Prior knowledge:
By secondary structure, the protein is of the alpha/beta class. It has 52 helices and 69 strands. It has an 11-stranded mixed beta sheet. The chain has a 7-stranded mixed beta sheet with strand order 38-37-36-39-45-47-46, sandwiched between helices.
Amino acid sequence: xxxxxxxxxxxxxxxxxxxxxxxxxxxxxxxxxxxxxxxxxxxxxxxxxxxxxxxxxxxxxxxxxxxxxxxxxxxxxxxxxxxxxxxxxxxxxxxxxxxxxxxxxxxxxxxxxxxxxxxxxxxxxxxxxxxxxxxxxxxxxxxxxxxxxxxxxxxxxxxxxxxxxxxxxxxxxxxxxxxxxxxxxxxxxxxxxxxxxxxxxxxxxxxxxxxxxxxxxxxxxxxxxxxxxxxxxxxxxxxxxxxxxxxxxxxxxxxxxxxxxxxxxxxxxxxxxxxxxxxxxxxxxxxxxxxxxxxxxxxxxxxxxxxxxxxxxxxxxxxxxxxxxxxxxxxxxxxxxxxxxxxxxxxxxxxxxxxxxxxxxxxxxxxxxxxxxxxxxxxxxxxxxxxxxxxxxxxxxxxxxxxxxxxxxxxxxxxxxxxxxxxxxxxxxxxxxxxxxxxxxxxxxxxxxxxxxxxxxxxxxxxxxxxxxxxxxxxxxxxxxxxxxxxxxxxxxxxxxxxxxxxxxxxxxxxxxxxxxxxxxxxxxxxxxxxxxxxxxxxxxxxxxxxxxxxxxxxxxxxxxxxxxxxxxxxxxxxxxxxxxxxxxxxxxxxxxxxxxxxxxxxxxxxxxxxxxxxxxxxxxxxxxxxxxxxxxxxxxxxxxxxxxxxxxxxxxxxxxxxxxxxxxxxxxxxxxxxxxxxxxxxxxxxxxxxxxxxxxxxxxxxxxxxxxxxxxxxxxxxxxxxxxxxxxxxxxxxxxxxxxxxxxxxxxxxxxxxxxxxxxxxxxxxxxxxxxxxxxxxxxxxxxxxxxxxxxxxxxxxxxxxxxxxxxxxxxxxxxxxxxxxxxxxxxxxxxxxxxxxxxxxxxxxxxxxxxxxxxxxxxxxxxxxxxxxxxxxxxxxxxxxxxxxxxxxxxxxxxxxxxxxxxxxxxxxxxxxxxxxxxxxxxxxxxxxxxxxxxxxxxxxxxxxxxxxxxxxxxxxxxxxxxxxxxxxxxxxxxxxxxxxxxxxxxxxxxxxxxxxxxxxxxxxxxxxxxxxxxxxxxxxxxxxxxxxxxxxxxxxxxxxxxxxxxxxxxxxxxxxxxxxxxxxxxxxxxxxxxxxxxxxxxxxxxxxxxxxxxxxxxxxxxxxxxxxxxxxxxxxxxxxxxxxxxxxxxxxxxxxxxxxxxxxxxxxxxxxxxxxxxxxxxxxxxxxxxxxxxxxxxxxxxxxxxxxxxxxxxxxxxxxxxxxxxxxxxxxxxxxxxxxxxxxxxxxxxxxxxxxxxxxxxxxxxxxxxxxxxxxxxxxxxxxxxxxxxxxxxxxxxxxxxxxxxxxxxxxxxxxxxxxxxxxxxxxxxxxxxxxxxxxxxxxxxxxxxxxxxxxxxxxxxxxxxxxxxxxxxxxxxxxxxxxxxxxxxxxxxxxxxxxxxxxxxxxxxxxxxxxxxxxxxxxxxxxxxxxxxxxxxxxxxxxxxxxxxxxxxxxxxxxxxxxxxxxxxxxxxxxxxxxxxxxxxxxxxxxxxxxxxxxxxxxxxxxxxxxxxxxxxxxxxxxxxxxxxxxxxxxxxxxxxxxxxxxxxxxxxxxxxxxxxxxxxxxxxxxxxxxxxxxxxxxxxxxxxxxxxxxxxxxxxxxxxxxxxxxxxxxxxxxxxxxxxxxxxxxxxxxxxxxxxxxxxxxxxxxxxxxxxxxxxxxxxxxxxxxxxxxxxxxxxxxxxxxxxxxxxxxxxxxxxx
Length: 1686
């Protein structure tokens, strides 16, 4: 399939789309940046034009025909084939004018122009939502994939998803789908055309969407990585592609360069062969030798090359060098030894079980000996190199170089990677040897101690010299320091080194003189705060200090007299650090160290417990409580030697050790940075008493979390305000864009209340101006403070120097450097401000668009009982923090341990003790009462806040210090946004409130269809804190989807309400956006897939139901779709993947990581619960399973499971089209329940009170939910009988209850016929035949096979027409003529109910040859019409038809009626008997078909022959007239109907137009043709004429038949004249029929309607009203009419 066919496909898609509504004068445009694609598309239009063209001014313009419109495609191309912009503009104007040859034309422009006249005056078919938008074409292709039936459907869908994402990301066009289209059509896929490796395995995966997605992503990621490396690092592939062997790289990237043609499996095999390390280097040793070992670097590749420097004991002539490896399949031939001075043969010993050892016997003379040992393996990851140097012990001074050497064995020298230009080569002495260029430069250790090579380094890049010790010489090569290998501090969190951690022989050293960390014989430079903190630790350790401030110290020795036990344990701890030359932040936490720490903690805890209560602390107590505190200048920190820090990390280390598997691996190494950042001890002591500021926060130092900073209340940072201000300005100006319609001339007014120096606010405005530049609005700021103070705005206005401003605002470098002056000028010209003191209580603030309010009232400290305060502890204290609750109207925040088990957590016990002892130890004369401190917030700021509400459209409260319920209890305000995404505090960092309640009410009212708005405001805020604000600027589709999610989770609540599991719905977007109380970006949450290695793929982001029962947590995902009928398979994948991902990858594994995630997940659930409780959206009894065991759940030791014997999730669609009539339920093969609801139900669902269990239970019946989909309780409580009775009663009451509709009483009620009731809502459905606003004509089609209730319905309609005819316009009676083919309308009940007159086919009292009207030559017309009807009924020939016509005209003349003389037309017309007799009187009678036809009419005496007994047909049709046709041949039946309709049509025209009153047109006559299929097939012209013209005369036709196909014949499509349809079950139905009647082009909707029609029960139908709205209806049957009447 070529691109040519794809372009043909695009053209067809376009034509199918515009076919419905295209009109002459329309203009379309499509921008295609690629000339080749544009030309190919244009050629596709030309192929479709098929040589049709318009010619103007000698230019031929091809066109395509579409619905009578000539679409002219034109190609914009000034250089080659195509037209210029000017000529296209000319064509555009001509087409728009619709004159001349362009009268019926439309224009399609293919261009790559930015000319407004082309772009703005034509519909962009590539725009979002248009026919050629990437999203639309993707949707069409997705449908094509489903219809294809291919085994590769899952793969096609994934490729389509990827291609759509790529097209949107790159701003490309739909041409990007061309290769995929070809693959789908041919069902032949070549993955290399999609930037992938060919993969037969992937092509053969059937229906395994999740596996397909994973393998496809792996394939694409690998391809992209290799392609990038080949392009940018072609000469370094062995380094960059380190998961491939050198052999593989040489073969496929160098020799053949065929890497793109290899199969994906070949790459996987190669990667796996190199990944599974069967051989891992462990150690190198020589007996009694000293080894200095350095890896080339700490990277994976660097660790494969090691330099081994051995110091061999003196007088040894031979040594055994032993290399030990984990793994036992090493062979001797895989060991290669190179040396210029010796020969050695390796021996491989594999007798050691899991290990093998390589022994190399090396002769040693005492001379420096260089050896290279290469391990060559098939698996490249197992290959390694050892560059060895053997020197005699103490022969050379190596102390200075042991951490900075690299051995180059091939060159027989040792390279030193050092800074500076001097090297000490002997331990003592000061004699310096200066290296000079050109000299031999042999430096003797006997004469010199230092080598100076500064001069040489300035002259050349090569610095080399020999160091001579006696007869032995060592050549040294000097290079600058290598790139630093970073070392994480604290070392415990260095995940790359994890395998070596947790042992006592892997502690890092700290070289204070160089500010470097030494580990793995490498040095890493430390700078900034990390260096300062390590220096502090080094100072404390070297001086044996436990406490340090500017004027006081506490040493270990000082403890001897206070607590000998504590002294001894700390002394041991410091000796350990000294022994290993390490620091607390650099220790590896081996078992020896952990044991020492445990001793310290036991002694410390024992001492704290010995401090007596109810007494002031003694000085010795206070000294002990100073341990670990470090004060310097104005900073106070808790150091890593503090017992609380030690206790926390000891607990963490033990958890890590317990988490390790048999291979020593731990999930700790896979923790994302966001989780690692939570593993800090500060949460155990979130705030403490502070002398100067009452209290201080304890926060981790981000550069080294073993250090905690004590930040006084007054110094708390508000750095996040900068971003907050920028965000709020953007949100407000988008939401109220009409206020700023004049662009940069508009002024945004902001009130800053209680903002002090406003540094962050100023920087936030700076960010706004940076982003907007010249497009920025002018901004005026009003400052309100208790007193006028100098702020940052003053500083800016008073600083005249541009350079000073650039330095201050950091715009003198980077992206803004070139625009810095312009930016400053913009701010100076567009930012103004005023300053006021806060006005008195009765005075208002100035008007503003936006206000930023800070609660500057101080927070009070109150004593609390730690063990009774609400807990914020997770996972046994591994994650901890404060918790907030309301007590006595005050807002309290504290660290609490209520119902927390502390027996197994020494850290928690110490936290409680320290929290209780901190204030007594800091505040003089304060007794120790065993209480901690809590923070209490006053609400005295409420009055000023109210005035801010009154003055500004929005008020954003910064650091409100109160919870959401404070704002929800205030009158006349609505909380529109609350955020916890800026800081890591326990509460909300910003809350936005407005008094513009009506704006949001109007918005939600419009979107929800009139639901209870006050409740809806609460629903939005409770479910997602971002939604209400986003609704202001969101497109209608997004707003509709959010309403759909609210309604969706409430519906699923109905399914779950009878379960004994406590269910709580969560916003998945909220889970991903935040984690617990910490705000994060989408990729910074534990629950975001990106942190677990996923980048794309289907996953639900709507609702997750979390269930609690016993010790198990259950998950049920809900994916909600609103609008068109969704792709249920894809939506099911989304729901299934969310559940799989959360259970299998995040929450369920029995690992440390998953335990942490489980605790954080419960914290997120609790936040949602608090909001539901706040807004009263959930009943308290449903929360017992969670809240009564809150602390147990937070510990994270619960189980995670699927609900047994139930669905795995839900896909719920609110379908907004008229093919969805009532709820439907289907269980997919993946065990996902697919729920389809009419969109009309959404408003009632939103208004549903989910706290009312009885209401929920009742809806189970109302919504016809199968019992298998309702989750029932598995265990029954003692009150089961009561519960059961309640439920059964509720269900009984829920038996189908018609909706009571109150119809307003009008002075005169229009004619209404009750067709039936909506099958689901029970709302009555009326037909209003006189109302032209609703029904342009009264023609109605009634369809249904036998036994469906079709006749009962039709009788009901006729009966109601008669009974309600007084409601006709002017009260005019209605005449109804029924052609009854099966004697269905002659029963006594119908005759009695309607007063009908019935006639058999014997002497019908009207004459088909009677003349009506004033048409010239009327007898000729009448004769011709009669003859044509007879011809169609009996198949007469042309001669017979002419003969019959002449016979009739002869009869007219015999009766004195002449065609030319209209005065004779009133005479008595001849009858059919007269025609028959004249036919018989002919000399020659041919017994042909004409003879047979006339004889039947005459012999049956169907029509009356006596004129006096005849009536006008119109007069005969008073009331209901039934002509019974049963028992006669079909040709006779059809002839009678046709002749009668011929006569009716002529009389209808003569009768004239009916009365019209406003929108109401009088009905005069109705005709019912029952079982009309046979009649319609004859194509009698009178039926089509009456259908087409009848409405103008107040006439309507009801056609009743058994099949939809009967309405379309060879000559006529009667369906086109029928407006109203009532369709019962039919046996056969086709897509074309559905399209014609229902006006549905979408194939899936057609299939849905066909399925519905096939399954209709008796007395049920689909009713299509005058507005083409489709409803599923329960018919109003005739027998029901009789019952109502009686």
